[in-house]
Write a structure and sequence with these properties.
Elements: H1 3-17, H2 24-36, H3 44-71, H4 93-118, H5 121-135, H6 149-157, H7 159-170, H8 175-198, H9 200-205, H10 211-215, H11 217-240, H12 255-267, H13 271-304
Length: 305
C-alpha cells in the first residue's frame, strides 16, 4: 500500500472520528443566530470564525467522548458502529484524545480571534463552551454520565451558540436571540435523547445515568414529543407574540417529518432502527434551522428594501 493511500485512509478515519452525521448540530444554530441580525448588516469574517469555532468544538467533543467512553469500558460491549474508530482498531484511544484536544484548541483560537474583535464579553462564553465539551464525559465531571447530558447540550448548542453567533455580528446580547434559540436547542437535544434511548441497556449496565434510562422507555418517548413537536409549538408562540417575524413559520414545513419521527421512536426497538431515528432527527434539526434562517433572511431583506 502506497503512502498516499495510507494517508487517504487516515484522513477518512479522522473524518469519521468527528462523527460527521451530527456536525450539522453546530452549524444550524450559527446560521439562525446570524440570520437574526441581518437587518443590522453582515460581517462574513466573524460568521466564518464562529462557524469554524463551533464545528471544531463539537468535533473535539465527539472525539473526546469516544476516548473517555472507551477508557471507562462503555464501548467495549456495544455493537460496532461506523463512527467507532477506537473499537474498530483504526485509531488508538490516546491518538483520538490528542485529536480531540487539537480540535478544541482550534475552536479556542477561533474564539480568541472573535474576542479580539468584539471584546472580553465573549471570552467567558468561549471558555465555558470548551470546558463543557471536555467535561461531558471526562472524569471527575462526566456530565453525560450523571443525567446532565441533555441539559448541557440544550444550553451550549442552543442559547449559547445562537446568542454567540448573534453577538459577534452586533456586539449586543439580546432576549430575541435567546428566545429564538429555544426551539433550535430543543431539537438538537432530541438528537442526544434518541442516542441515549438507543444505548439504554448498555448505559444501565455500566452505571451511566441518562434521562432515558432514568425515565424508562415509555416516558422517554414522551420526552421526545416534548422536545421535537414542542419546538414547533414554541416557535408558533414566539411568532404570535411578535418576538419572531412571521416568515420564520417557514420552518413549520418540516412538522410532518417531526411527527413521523416521533411515531417511529415510540414504535421502534433495536439499535439499528433507533440509529435511523437519531440520524433522521439530526437531519430534521438542520432542515428546521435552515428554513428558520431563510425566514429570518427574507424578513431582513424585506425590512431593508
Amino acid at each position: 500500500m502506497t503512502s498516499a493511500s495510507i494517508q487517504g485512509i487516515s484522513l477518512r478515519t479522522w473524518y469519521r472520528a468527528t462523527r460527521p452525521r451530527t456536525l450539522s448540530a453546530s452549524v444550524a444554530p450559527v446560521l439562525v443566530g446570524t440570520a437574526l441580525t441581518l437587518t443590522d448588516g453582515f460581517r462574513p469574517d466573524r460568521f466564518l470564525l464562529a462557524l469554524l469555532g463551533a464545528l471544531a468544538i463539537q468535533a473535539g467533543t465527539n472525539m473526546l467522548n469516544e476516548h473517555f467512553d472507551h477508557v471507562q469500558g462503555l464501548d467495549l460491549s456495544r455493537p460496532r458502529r461506523a463512527d467507532m474508530v477506537v473499537q474498530s482498531g483504526e485509531l488508538a484511544h490516546g491518538a483520538l484524545f490528542r485529536g480531540g484536544v487539537a480540535a478544541m484548541a482550534l475552536g479556542a483560537l477561533c474564539g480568541l480571534a472573535l474576542v479580539a474583535q468584539t471584546g472580553p464579553a465573549l471570552l467567558v462564553v468561549g471558555v465555558l463552551s470548551v470546558l463543557a465539551g471536555y467535561a461531558y464525559t471526562a472524569r471527575p465531571f462526566a456530565l453525560g454520565y450523571r443525567a446532565l447530558g441533555e441539559v448541557t447540550v440544550f444550553i451550549f448548542m442552543g442559547p449559547v451558540i445562537v446568542m454567540g453567533a448573534a453577538f459577534v455580528q452586533t456586539e449586543h446580547w439580546t432576549w430575541d436571540a435567546f428566545l429564538i434559540s429555544l426551539p433550535v436547542g430543543m431539537i438538537v437535544t432530541a438528537i442526544l435523547h434518541v442516542n441515549n434511548v438507543r444505548d439504554m441497556a448498555d448505559d444501565r449496565a455500566h452505571g451511566k445515568r441518562t434521562l432515558a434510562n432514568l425515565l424508562g422507555r415509555r416516558a422517554a418517548g414522551y420526552e421526545y414529543l416534548l422536545l421535537v413537536p414542542g419546538a414547533y409549538a414554541v416557535l408558533t408562540i414566539l411568532v404570535l407574540a411578535g418576538v419572531v417575524p412571521v416568515p420564520a413559520l417557514l420552518a413549520l414545513v418540516t412538522l410532518p417529518i417531526a411527527l413521523r419521527l416521533a411515531r417511529q421512536l415510540s414504535a421502534t426497538e433495536g439499535v439499528y432502527n433507533l440509529d435511523r431515528v437519531m440520524v433522521g432527527t439530526a437531519k430534521l434539526h438542520l432542515r428546521f434551522s435552515l428554513l428558520l434562517a431563510v425566514g429570518l433572511l427574507a424578513w431582513a431583506l424585506w425590512e431593508r428594501f
